[in-house]
Structures are given as C-alpha cells and as structure tokens.
Amino acid sequence: GAVVSQHPSWVICKSGTSVKIECRSLDFQATTMFWYRQFPKQSLMLMATSNEGSKATYEQGVEKDKFLINHASLTLSTLTVTSAHPEDSSFYICSAGGRGVWYEQYFGPGTRLTVT
Amino acid sequence: AQSVAQPEDQVNVAEGNPLTVKCTYSVSGNPYLFWYVQYPNRGLQFLLKYITGDNLVKGSYGFEAEFNKSQTSFHLKKPSALVSDSALYFCAVRALNAGNNRKLIWGLGTSLAVNP
Hints:
Strand content of chain B: over 45%
Mean pLDDT of chain B: 91
Low-confidence stretches of chain A: none
Oligomer: heterodimer
Order of helices and strands of chain A: EEEEEEEEEEE
Distance between the termini of chain B: 41 Å
Structural class of chain A: mainly beta
Number of strands of chain B: 12
Strand content of chain A: over 45%
Largest interface: A-B, 25 and 25 residues
Radius of gyration of chain B: 14 Å
C-alpha cells in the first residue's frame, strides 16, 4: 500500500512552453502533498506544501506564478511549470502524507524535466 | 534555525561489515527525526523515525538508528551491510513552514557504497 505515482516520468519541452506534472496517491487519501526539486547529487529542496482544497504554501524563493500547484482532490495534485526555461530543468518529486501520520511521507518516482 | 547535517558525502563499506551513516540536527523543542533511502531510479522510501520513547529505533531492511539527545545525533546503522544497501540516504527533521504547517527539512544526503 501507500503508492504514489507521478506522470510523466520524463518530459522534454521547449523554452517558453508550460508543462504539467501529476502526482496521484493510488491507495490512500492524501490530505497533504509536497513538491520537491532535486538537483544532481544534491538534497531535496521543498518547493511547496499543498493541502487539499486550499492554496499551496510556497517556500521562500519559490515563484508562485511560475510553479503553479493545484490540489483539487484527496488523490491528485498537479505542478505546472509555466513559461519554462532551461534553468527549470530538474528532477521534480512529489510526496503525499495523510494516512494519519503526515510525516511518514510516501514519494512518487519523480519526473525528469528537460527544457531545451 | 532548524537544520540537519550529514557530514559525509559518501560512505564505503565492505559487504558483511557494520555500517554507520551520520546525522546531526538542530531544532527547537522535541525533535522528530527521520531516515529515508533513495535507490537508483526509484522514489524515496521511508526507513524509520524517532518521535519519542526508546532511543534505539528499528526500521525497514534491518536498519536501525540511535537517537542521542546530548550529542543531537541520529545516526543510521546496520550490523551487516549488503551490496543491495547501496543507495542515497537522507536524514530529515520536522519543521514548520511559513504557513505554520509541518514540513521536513532534509540533509544533503549520504551516498552509501557497499563493496562485494
């Protein structure tokens, strides 16, 4: 149990376009979802926390208008990278908590975004 | 400020030998501490946590961690390493974000290589 999926697993897009990444909790209801960014050989950088039905809370330095997060249901959160640029190329990971213990997060496999 | 430090970028051990991956933390209040593992091409997986109680915490795959309040450490250990333990290990501590929601602060990760 406690499976989180992400789609797509990798995507290549042109500079200036937008990309949407989906994160789904497959067998439990995720009241809270987290979006991370991971650079090569570096730690996870929390971008934002989203609670179902409310606006996401962004970490300092993360552009809200560039990284749009929607958590419309207890099983789905989306991250849209708007007007993507090459510096947005990264590995994006979502995690879900909410099975009664928010801190025991369950991670998706990640999405590799390459902006050309 | 709350933080997590993993002083070693890489740890190398021989198969069958004991392993230790170090983690120190700085928090206000009682610490909630976690270890996660990231295998190549797979999502992060929860290993174990310390919330309260016994200082020695047992987790998945034979791993354990010892909470030491005086040394503010939470080192990950395993009595006998396996080649399949080779992965990236992250220590994390609970914190609060700008919206006063709980989140995890992550160490930079330690790459564990177990040699046959």
